[in-house]
Amino acid sequence: MKKDLGVIMYKREQIEQSIIKLIINGAVLPGEKLPSVRDLAARHKFSITPVLEALRSLEKKEIIESLPSKGFYVRNDIYRNPHLSFLQEDKAQSTFMKFEILNSKFSNYAANILDPSSHIHWPMASTITSTYYYPVDEINYHIARIAKTQEITVNLQQQPKDLDHLVQNIMKWMIPCGCPFSNKELSLVCSATQALMLALRSCTFPGDIVAVESPGHIGFYFLLEFLQLKALRIPSDFRTGLKVSVLKSYLEKGLRPSCLLLSANYSNPTGALMPEQSKSELVELCRQFRLPIIEDDILGDIHFDEVRPHPLKSFDPENVIYISGFTKSLSPAHRIAWIAGGRFHKEIVFHKNLIGAFVPLLIQQGFSSFLSSGAGARHLQHFRQQCFEILSKSLQVINDTFPSGTIAEMPRGGLFIWIQLPQGIDTALLSDIAKQHDITIASGKIFSSPAGEYNNCIRVNCLAMPWNVNTLEKLSLLGKIATSLIRKN
């Protein structure tokens, strides 16, 4: 009897979540009728009993109501329901990112940053670091040598596969992470974005909700939109990262996202680093609610502390889909990234094979040769020191020239500085004026929710171009422009 009751409760919860998703996704609006009991039972392949239990439970929570001889309807006052506080009708407090808003932001972002014809000399808005800082020529030397000495091997028509030797080198590279996964779990792909797409396809379906940090990498949000997924914003502190308590409150209220997407180490755009205790609490919370985590750790290698921070994967090898690569640490020109899927490994491999997401064998062999020589580790140590020195000098200029009340702190790793300007400064206008001086910046508006809580923030990347005295002058000019804007207000 107890076992039967437990099964009914499990099925009831599944149906409840399905109905709530219909409401959240706008498939059923306030005042509209829900699918019939029989339709819900057929859709879930359950009997009518757990469906009725779920409907009665939602009715008690005042999410739906039953009308005699008509069926069940979504209540008109749904937005005021305390069980669904994340559905506030007030757009200023909207939890979900609207595609129209995102699309407008991305269009402006692309026009100012991604357009290769813009020829901006000081592209501080860019997420891409100048190749000036990377050993591109040395890597190309290894690739060219392989091409000459093993020409027949690399040109053979053969089934694409991950090169065992490169996978082994990556496993050695990742020893400081403390991630206990095997080389059989690791799959190579051409970019972190490609890895993110594989991860999302492996644990979601179109229309699902994905919890995502905010502010977060704008690429996260557009990937969700591309895959027809809905973004549930979880606020993030610019120092300590994702607010675990907010995610916990959503889960305890009954909302069940299909996965959580974030960067725990040096998040883009803020550079936030989650404390070890917060990471442990987050992983335990997600384990408790069986919420898969997709972790983008692409910046984790660029740490300024003596010891590399642990990724979330090190706390839970099975429930965390881990993504990293060499595009930020070794070379943006050679597209090598990897994904370790935990309990989703088989699904990830299936989707990888389906879309042919394979790294060219010649690139794999050349990069493996480069890593085996020890040059990769030597470069990373030097590059981390370069990043620290450049960000330190940049921060000094920001503190000296930006308006009083500006908040900017030295990140503990990564490539970016997150600057909070005094309220009232229009960072979109600041961006427009800066562009007239051959400078681009990433306005906080592109990372904002409809509430616009980051409108007074900007992200700068002072490694997007070779560092020299002119970089300092341009950064100083940016501060003077910001100061002039606050005076006009």
Description:
The protein has 489 residues and is α/β, with parallel strands linked by helices. The protein folds into 3 domains: 2-89, Winged helix-like DNA-binding domain superfamily/Winged helix DNA-binding domain (Arc Repressor Mutant, subunit A, Orthogonal Bundle); 99-132 and 377-488, Aspartate Aminotransferase, domain 1, CATH 3.90.1150; 151-374, Aspartate Aminotransferase, domain 2 (3-Layer(aba) Sandwich). Helices cover 43% and strands 13% of the residues. The protein has 16 helices and 16 strands. It has helices at residues 2-24, 37-44, 48-60, 99-114, 136-149, 151-155, 164-173, 192-203, 218-226, 244-252, 276-288, 345-355, 361-372, 375-401, 427-436, 469-488, and strands at 64-67, 71-74, 122-123, 186-189, 209-214, 230-237, 241-242, 259-262, 293-296, 320-325, 337-340, 407-408, 417-420, 439-440, 442-443, 457-460. The chain has an 8-stranded mixed sheet with strand order 4-11-10-9-8-5-6-7, with helices on both faces. A hairpin with a 3-residue loop joins strand 6 (230-237) and strand 7. It is globular and about 75 Å long. Residues 86-95 and 97-101 have low confidence and may be disordered.
